[in-house]
Specification:
It contains 9 helices and no strands. It is mainly α. α3 crosses α8 and α5 crosses α8. It has one domain.
């Protein structure tokens, strides 16, 4: 349990660290996008090797896993659409916020929608962090590192976006602090709920979370990385994938 709490503090703490960096320093879009690309590569490796593949070996239920994987992606896409439609559209992109403010008819952002959207991104990751720790082995460490690298640029970019829109520093910190607490609790929940679950249930829930995380990668991290770093984002993503693969095997 202590290991799970520690992993949750690390992975969730990346959001707060990214928020503090975004508040204290002027970080360029290309740097944030490069971290996103690297984190996306690490997460892709963790999803394909440590979650889906090991889940199949454990459960031997490819069709059930496939169904939950697709369901996770659909739930994320629908949830993301609802959040975007209610004021959370620019929570993950400072570039998008800047373009919005320059337009003749800027769209309003909602603090509640931003918070809900951040939870939509973070809960599946944190839940799997706890489940991976419960499963033991190197997968928990690799996945925790992957979530850390994905949360760090999200905290940076989201903070810059919120400040650009006019949100106070106090509200920004409270929002990310609330997200941090929920993600740590999600990691603990993943550890407790899946620690003694049957192989099929364990694999199915991990597949559901994997589908949601992959949808998030395509919707947010990879698209932002390519927007600012072009073809170099592909190379950075590959390096992240390779590093995570090596760490999972060593």
């Amino acid at each position: 349990m202590l290991e799970t709490i520690f992993a949750g503090l690390i992975s969730g703490g990346a959001i707060l660290l990214g928020a503090l960096l975004g508040l204290c320093f002027k970080i360029g879009h290309k740097m944030i996008a490069a971290i996103m690309a690297f984190g996306a590569g690490v997460l892709l490796s963790a999803l394909s090797i440590d979650l889906m593949n090991k889940g199949f070996e454990q459960s031997q239920a490819p069709f059930v896993m496939g169904l939950f994987f697709l369901t996770g992606a659909i739930v994320f896409v629908l949830g993301d659409y609802l959040v975007d439609s209610n004021g959370g559209k620019f929570r993950k992109s400072s570039h998008g916020m800047a373009q919005n403010l320059k337009s003749d008819n800027p769209e309003e952002s909602s603090g509640c929608a931003i918070f809900l959207g951040t939870l939509l991104d973070g809960i599946p990751e944190s839940f799997v962090v706890g489940a991976s720790i419960a499963a033991g082995g190197a997968s928990g460490v690799v996945f925790t590192a992957a979530v850390f690298l994905s949360n760090l640029p999200e905290g940076m970019s989201g903070t810059v976006s919120m400040k650009m829109y006019g949100m106070s520093t106090r509200n920004v910190i409270f929002l990310w602090l609330g997200t941090f607490i929920v993600t740590v609790l999600s990691a603990i929940g993943g550890y407790l709920f899946l620690g003694n679950a049957s192989p099929v249930i364990d694999a199915s829930i991990k597949a559901f979370a994997s589908g949601a995380i992959l949808a998030m990668l395509c919707d947010t991290m990879i698209s932002e990385a390519f927007k600012f770093n072009g073809r170099f984002a592909a190379l950075i993503t590959v390096v992240g994938f390779l590093l995570a693969f090596i760490l999972s095997k060593v």
